[in-house]
Design goal:
Length: about 325
């Protein structure tokens, strides 16, 4: 997720069982200019396998060139962003704009699939707006053009992140194409993961916000799939150790100044579900150094720190949805 996740965060999710990780989106154009900052977003670990790099753009030849560069850098898959709603991306014809005409989406995929031997996959939304919920058409077009799998976030571009993801459109895409379909949107508990599988027939689940501050969601979902019950949530000190481990890894990779600035938002996510989390968050957004974060985390994540009940009473640890 752009600006939210990064190599150390993905590694943490993998340690908890995430089966496939994807870089944040990078610009095809910037890759072709050999832009150093863009390439730094594609930092990876040899332990990260399979790993996908996500790219955005509109021009088939540029997208093919980007796919070649990504394959050359050792990635196992290349994913095309057809879901980003933000004006900077969608306004230039990239991201979700590619869904407006399935022929444009197909032209991009065809050029990329011809250029590389690694799988080319697509991440899309339900459609552009309520009148154009055309994910099944776009999925058919990109599957015919050579896409190896599609992920569908069950919201339109017009919805941004409001309302709830519509699972029925994911089910419709699943019925429309012969390639694997991954369901995405609002999965933040094992119960919601099971519901996504049950109601859509999808082949896998993509988790975004539900993994922010709770990377153990992958372990919990896998446990529920295998045994019907998730392990208890990690104790406060365990959460603290994961948080500080992440901060150290990020500081090593990007330098303490940048690492700690990235940690301001991520740290807030780790306090989710704990009593007095708001007080922790108020302080976390002002941290300047790794030492600041260590002091704050040690004072907050103590053995006595209680969890607040799950919102809406969702039975987050069991198979019930
Ligand atoms: C801060 C943020 C950054 C995101 N960046 C990306 C991105 O780079 N590529 C992408 O395909 N989706 C991105 N998304 C969308 C998520 O991948 C996902 O489709 C969406 O949040 C719905 O799923 P969720 O409810 O599991 O989060 C981003 C979402 C957020 C909130």
């Amino acid at each position: 997720m752009a600006g939210a996740t990064n190599l150390p965060y993905r590694m943490l999710c993998r340690r908890f069982g995430a089966g496939l990780t994807v870089t944040e989106m990078v610009s095809a154009k910037a890759l072709s200019f050999r832009d150093g900052k863009t390439w730094s977003l594609l930092e990876r670990s040899p332990l990260e396998e399979p790993l996908s790099a996500q790219v955005f753009g509109t021009v088939p030849a540029e997208m093919a060139e980007a796919a070649r560069a990504i394959e050359g850098a050792g990635f196992h898959l290349v994913d095309v962003n057809m879901g980003c709603p933000v004006p900077k991306i969608a306004g230039s014809g990239a991201g979700c704009s590619l869904m407006k005409d399935p022929r444009d989406a197909a032209a991009v995929i065809e050029a990329m699939a011809r250029a590389v031997s690694i799988p080319v996959t697509v991440k899309m939304r339900a459609g552009w707006d309520e009148e154009r919920r055309n994910a099944p058409d776009v999925a058919r077009a990109v599957a015919s053009a050579g896409a190896a799998a599609v992920t569908v976030h069950g919201r339109t571009r017009a919805q941004l992140y409001s309302g709830r993801a519509d699972l029925s459109i994911i089910a419709e895409v699943k019925r429309s194409v012969p390639i694997p379909v991954l369901g995405n949107g609002d999965v933040d508990s094992p119960g919601k993961a099971l519901r996504m599988f049950r109601e859509t027939g999808c082949d896998g689940i993509v988790i975004g916000r539900g993994a922010l501050g709770t990377p153990w969601i992958f372990r919990d979902i896998l446990a529920v799939l295998r045994t019907g019950e998730a392990p208890p949530p990690p104790a406060a000190e365990e959460v603290r150790d994961h948080l500080l481990g992440l901060a150290r890894d990020l500081s090593r990779l990007r330098g303490e100044y940048t690492g700690i600035r990235l940690m301001r938002k991520l740290s807030c996510d780790f306090a989710k579900g704990f009593r007095d989390g708001a007080r922790f968050r108020e302080a976390a957004v002002h941290i300047e150094t790794l030492a600041d974060l260590e002091a704050l985390a040690r004072a907050f994540f103590t053995p006595e720190r209680e969890r607040t009940p799950a919102p809406g009473g969702e039975p987050s640890r069991t198979a019930a949805a």
